[in-house]
Amino acid sequence: MTQGPTLLLVHGAWCDAWVWEPVLGALRERGVRVDSIERMPSAGRDADQLGDLHADVEHVRARLSELGGSVIVCGHSYAGVVMTELADHPAIDRSVYLTAFWPGEGQSVLDLVGGQPPDWVVGRDDGSLAVTDDVERARRVLFGDLDSQAAAQAYEQLVLQSAASFVAPSGSPARSHPTTYVLCTEDQAIPLALQEAMSAPADDVVRLESAHFAQLSHPQEVADLLAAFVNEGSAASR
Question: Which residues of the chain have pLDDT under 50?
Fold first, then answer.
């Protein structure tokens, strides 16, 4: 019997693997074989050490090689750009964009958001981007459906993001596998209209009544969705 796919979870900007912890537990309870990227090179606390989009793509590519076999990749937010660069990777069975950026050829994150960062993103002189120090503003934009304590805890774990990762244009290779887009309808960081526009090329679209970090506020729903794709892939491999 051929082994079914592994699920690989990829975090977005200003984050690392902690954002997936509630979903990881829920997936493992469902018997899903799952892994996550601990931290992509473009995120961290030392601005001098931050990488760019190319470094992130190669980091995820290396993990795909380590995992071996077929993989379903779920990327959140900025991770959508990384997944887009890997659209022709032979190991990927499906890409799942969780309220994620999906650029066309030559587009960057900055292009998709209108040419300049939103007002809750702070550009620093060291080449990095930070989330606003206005905790309530950050909560409304990023964690609007978490309670104040959970939102504060999440905010405290945010790190710096490389500005270079937001201006790098996408190569957008041709896709070699199906793609799902999960629209988060209450997202204030990536407006619903932009999500809907980016989701147009998807093979299927799912709507989730959630703010930007659905994996924190709706872990069971996200786990159910991802587990269904893994089970579908496992059945196909038998």
Answer: 1, 238
C-alpha 12/C-alpha 19 separation (Å) is 9
Strands 92-98 and 204-208: unpaired
Contact 70, 6 (CB under 8 A): yes
Q: How far is CA 115 from CA 84, 108, 112, 118, in A?
A: 20, 9, 7, 9
Q: Whole-model pTM?
A: 0.96
Q: 47, 124 in Cβ contact below 8 A?
A: yes
Residue 35 phi/psi, 5-degree rounding, is: -135, 165
**CB 212, CB 99: distance < 8 Å:** yes
Helix 21-29 to helix 219-237 angle (10° resolution) is 50
- Kind plus residue range of the DSSP H or E element containing 149: helix 148-156
Q: 68 by DSSP, 3-state: which?
A: coil
CATH code, residues 6-237: 3.40.50.1820
> Quick one: pLDDT at residue 234?
54
Which run of H or E residues covers position 151? helix 148-156
Q: In 30-86, where does DSSP find H-type helix?
A: 53-67, 79-85
Tens-place pLDDT, residues 24-54:
999 999 999 999 999 999 999 999 999 999 9
Distance (Å, whole) CA 24 – CA 34: 7
Structure tokens at 173: 């290779």
